[in-house]
Design brief:
This protein has 485 residues and is an alpha/beta fold. It has two domains: 271 residues, Aldehyde Dehydrogenase, Chain A, domain 1; 186 residues, Aldehyde Dehydrogenase, Chain A, domain 2 (3-Layer(aba) Sandwich), CATH 3.40.309.10. It is 39% helix and 21% strand. Strand 7, helix 5 and strand 8 form a beta-alpha-beta unit. The mean pLDDT is 97. Bound molecules: succinic acid. The site of succinic acid (SIN) has 9 residues, from loops.
Amino acid sequence: MSRQRGELDEKYLLLSKAYVAGKWVDGSGDPIAVDDPYTLETVGQVPRVSEAQVSEAIDAANRAFPQWARWPAKERGAILRRWYELVIQHKEDFARLITLENGKALKESRAEVDYGAGFLEFYADEATRSLGEIIPAPVTGRRLMVEREPIGVCVAITPWNFPLAMLTRKVGPALAAGCTMVAKPAELTPLTALAFAKLGEEAGVPAGVFSVVTGNSKTIGPVMTGSPIVRKLSFTGSTPVGAMLAEACAPTIKRLGLELGGNAPLLIFDDADLDTAVETAMVAKFRNGGQSCVAANRIYVQNGIRDRFLDAFGSKVATMKAGDGFEDGIDVGPMIDDRAIAKIDEHREDALRRGGRLIAGGASPGGRIAVPTLIGDVASDALLTREETFGPLAGVIGFASVEDGVRLANDTPFGLAAYLCSSDPATIARVGRDLESGIVGINTGLISTPFAPFGGVKQSGLGREGSHHGLAEYQNLKYLCHAGL
Ligand code: SIN
């Protein structure tokens, strides 16, 4: 029997209730429909939780906190490890859920499950490696000690572009550190988060330690940001929304983790290996259909290699297929909504109007499909260089000297990721140093991993996720001054 579109092996993972204080609950008012971005049909519905239910989740997180924080780190880690194993055991179902609600090509969804589960695996071990310090005392008879403490109840607001990985990147370190968490997934993609919570329950996460509240940002956000119980907000999304959330958190002085807008540059220097440069551009631009904060939005190519690069990159882009994420051979699924398509169309037309040369792809054929497209000779002030396109549209801009390239790359208020391709160690060292960016990919477009700190400078955000630095974001340092020894 053939499988229905997006049908799961384990039907119970398609949930229509929110997870509050260890219970699966309905909300108040009409539920929210979840639509498949390709067929535009409704594939699920989730509750619109009330303000009181958000408060209930926060109160439960607060009640659960003291015990969870005092559990041995090894035991918290063991639960995270079981959770990781369950996610991997249900990898295909998670991949289908992600494609169903987000649209991305199934191979991208599978990669996301591995990437996302990796945060649980990493922090399962990292929980036990969180060390304190003894500082040499400046006077006799004293011992100066530093302990790491979990900061308390945390909230997470996660985006639609990586429905699993952006959640595990927050839940993994929070729970490993001994914090408790209430998460609000994006309204467009809540199903993955609910399935994830279900497996957390199966893994043995105690009631109240982790809740998922679904619904409207305008209802949920203010309860989270206004609560004096909540000690940290972690948000992945746009810079304007991050700024609003930071303002709302200011009166209660919450810790903030903000992973915000990107507008990443990719610099390709004359001495770059051509194949490496093309591969870097393919991944940096088209991973996740270009719907990523670290997507190379501006591709600057030095004049000596520019024509060869455009030929080779253009041939690759021309082979890419956009369509139904569930179909074999599809590289880019549908975009998330009509606004996404409108933005891509606007950026493409603007670049062409300003003298850009169409090398591969072209206009969107209708529906939510954006054809992978490459435009050469893009004006350096075109819209696509100034705003994140968040889609499979690549624009190439020429530059003359290394200094020009770095100046163009840094000419943005953002600084999340940047990429460079060169075979010269001196250029790599110098440009790597001078790029104003939290992350630099050198001869690679694949930079994201649970093992390294992910985060930006300038208006791209605050704090780091991933690695031991990501754990520290959920901890306070306590200094104990012991006298009379
Ligand atoms: C993002 O787009 O926000 C995250 C991308 C990544 O983790 O690679």
